[in-house]
Amino acid sequence: KNVSFAQLNNQVFEDSLSIQPKYAHNLYLQVQNLNFVKNNEYFNDIIPGQTFFGYQLKPRLVYFAAKNVRVDAGIYVLRDFGQEQFTQIAPVFSVKFQKKNTSLTLGTLQGNLAHRLIEPMYDFDRVLTNRLENGLQIIHKGQKWYLDLWVDWQQAISRGAPLQEEIFGGLHTFYRIIDKPHFRVQIPVQFTILHQGGQEAFIAKPILNTMNLATGLQVHFNFNKNAFVRTIKLDNYVLGSQAAEVTIGQPDFDNGRAFYGNLTLATKWGDLMTSVWLGDRFNSAQGGGLYRSTGVSDKTFAERNRDLLFVRYLRNIKISESTNFTVRVEPSYDFNNQKFETAIGLYVHFNPRFFLRKINLSF
Length: 363
Description:
This protein is mainly β. It is built from one helix and 17 strands. A 16-stranded antiparallel barrel has the order 1-2-3-4-5-6-7-8-9-10-11-12-13-14-15-16. It starts with 25 loop residues before the first strand and ends in a 5-residue tail after the last strand.
């Protein structure tokens, strides 16, 4: 099974578009529901504290048009409690074609946390606020090589619009150099780019390309599944960031770098994870706010160095075949500002699927 998690195991939050030949010509009703409360108790000038409290609902029809073709059509609803109206209502539609170990998806992607990027590259909170991605995606799952390559068109514009187009794309790939039952070593590479601009834009803002790159080494030790400690993971990365502002004059480049080290003990009572972040002028296109060197809300605020220690407890409890409960406690310490901060989240996932009928379409 070719599975790799980018430091945090977020599998229960992922949008899966799996294809199996045995489902050919079957029509299903699939419901994806996430109920959440997450409190970010932050007291720094980089990112303000915030509470997320609400639910997401995504009912959709899933039709397996052939043994290697999947079509999804439905609607996505986001409700943040305390608001009179729904935060977001959007259609979802995708067509996925798979040949052997490679798949192509057009439409609503298997995106967000399913890209399995490390948190400095992709913010966990986006699964609560910006879950949908629409565009194109290619995934390859080989015996030793994995690739996820995608383009998410976040904002399109028409000529003369007072907006910038926004396109977010990237890749996550790794090559497994040792693959033993109890020992695994692999080299990951992650890259993202956020393009803000467009030839059609009519707005006095520069074109901005924000790029992030990460690579490192992942070493996993697997033990007996009945043991108290089931897996020990060492996931270490070096990162770079570059914001290229393209204007009529000379381009201005802002470079950053960082080290991100992780030690995880996966136990029968949940995952205990310790992380160290050493950032120097690092900024990310859509990564976690705590890792940035510039303010999320106040763009004028900056801290050249961000040195942080995280101690996380993560537990996923399977209630039934379609229901899971997740708790995450994530305290952190800011060495430079000598501050303790924490984030606590509770989540209920309800994802049933109902068989409707078999439909043989003749073309």
